[in-house]
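To assess whether the prediction recovers the assembly geometry, we first specified each molecular entity separately, as shown.
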Amino acid sequence: MLKLFKIIADAGEATAKYPFAPFPVSPGFRGKPELNAAQCIACAACTTACPANALTMGNDTADGTRTWQLNLGRCIFCGRCEEVCPTHAIVLTPEFELAVANKADLLQKATFRLQQCEQCGQPFAPAKEIGYVMDLLRQSGVAVDEARRAEFASCPACKRKATVTRDAVSQHLSQEAEQ
Amino acid sequence: MSVSEQTKVGQNYVDGLRERFGAAILETEWQTADQVTVTVKLGSLPDVVEWLYYQQGGWLSVLFGNDERPLNGHFAVYYVLSMEGLVKSWVVVRALVEEHRPEFPSVTPRVPAAVWGEREIRDMYGLVPVGLPDERRLVLPDDWPEDLHPLRKDAMAYNQRPAPTTDDETYTFVNEASGSTRDVPLGPLHITSDEPGHFRLFVDGEDIVDADYRMFYVHRGMEKLAETRMGYDEVTFLSDRVCGICGFTHSVAYSSAVENALGLAVPARAQAIRSVFLEVERLHSHLLNLGLASHFVGFDTGFMQFFRVREKAMTMAELLTGARKTYGMNLIGGVRRDIMKDERTRTLKLVAELRAETTQLIDMLLSTPNLRERTAGVGVLSKQVARDYSPVGPLVRASGFKRDVRDLHAYAGYGSLPFDVHTEDSCDVLGRVLVRAREFFDSLAIIEHALDNLPAGPVLLEGFHYQPHRFALGFAEAPRGEDIHWAMTGDNQKLYRWRCRAPTYANWPPLRYMLRGNTVSDAPLIVASIDPCYSCTDRVTLVDVKKRKSTTVPYKEIERYGRERKNSPLK
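The predicted structure of the complete assembly is given in tokenized form:
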């Protein structure tokens, strides 16, 4: 009995002051995922990796937009999205107070513009992904200037067609490659 | 996978089977060095399993069906035996069942441990175990259509189910008492775990004469979900959610099943880190159960103290994995997070604190006269019943058997970590408490040792090739016994079949024998002593066989009676 009293006395007050004081979490805690839409290229890697289908991506070709959506009600806070994101646009924050009074508040959305093919006018990829590809090439030392954007902004089908047309005109390599 | 002749462990069992059963042994296939699947003629199934079980030191870990009609035109049944005789290995006995004759000879009359598995095969695949004494459903609800067997490949989608047709249960509870008894329903929620399960105690006055129970009120259809909706690499996150306490253990068991099937060598550092996380899970689980043990003998201050200290183990988990529960740390081929210097230092500090504080608490708990009085000699699981039913974890260890997969079939980093397998011979609730207390300190030592000797290198194996239709076992010792997973890969990067057996599945069947001969007020304590992975019974029905009277008692009342043992609700 005395042992017990000693333990209780030594323990002091075990209760935290939360919610009247902030409750600290460990570094590396996996809380609410947050998207930095400016950084996101809408490539959909996170939606493919998400085991819980909390992240989804939907295209509206009539509108020419792609909408990224996070459903916090389905999120399991595994952080796979953060791992696979090529641009570090989505990160898990330490935030854990996620209760809402309205179910719709659990949804977060971000809408991105789709790139229309310069040739056929069909949307085929997120516009920011085209910019990302050009940036990547510049980064690896290929000279890509803005004037060539039209070349990159063509859908795979039109690119194939262009190649066939070009090669039909001349069996030689393109001027650029010859140089 | 090709396993070379020299490395095969368990060849003696295969040789023995061939010698004894000759032509009944159709095929043997090795999945890993110590896992062999032996296909036998259907008629010899009971003989083969019985021989391995009782003559060769086998224990039945899990059994399950598989719809292999798209692969070879047959159904199959698998009986997984953990061989714990002189040679430690796994022998899986497989038999094919013809589609037009969906029945197989029941093994249960020879090996009682098969009872739940065979009932489940009948529910899920519609294969009839001929000769199985218990013809009741196990998993499916009473009003489920007769001819709909959910795990058949052509049965149904994972997200559909037939609409319920009735609210009435028609399940019959079995009472083997010879005299008259009174019925005490305990449930639909259990007493410790606040999870649904319906117990029926048959009592004579205060004494439990027999007991029966029904589970699976919250069957989530995870196996079907994994086979149809998820990719094989996403199932690690689903398996994390099998259990609210030992989820990481399930995730390790699942990952290693797939790794074994694909023949992947997981880096040593990843294995060691898995062991650390597994032991962190054991820490908080054992503290929870020790706390509950205090609660159920009426020592609520002890309960509060154990839960206060347990918070340090939860902090340790949060620090190492980023979450208090459902760590989500496994991928096929390793783990997702390394342990850095700062985390290591802080974990070691927490280990030291936990050791000091828990030593005090356990010392105090064991010197409380009430604990010994209430738990010694209560809920006895006799050695014979234990041998017949293949229970696992502290339950079987407190009945004198040295069963612990960490030791028997070392996985993750356990081959090089310091721990003992603790056993007790008292076979009672007290023995289980003592085993858990000792294992707690071993877990602390394992964490310290592993953190001090983490092998260098990567934590994840990358760039392997997925192959369909490969299968193997994966296993891990959860705080309450071993988790066994069997996974078969399939097309489109999806599992063909996933069988996941949680430890409590193996511990329920012998529970009725543990309840017999005890008093009603001991029932919550006995059920809690297997540390069941579902929870609290919120009401209890008592059936008095002599007075032919049935009373339903609120859970709070039976819990109060269990602690105070005054003013019996039966009177």
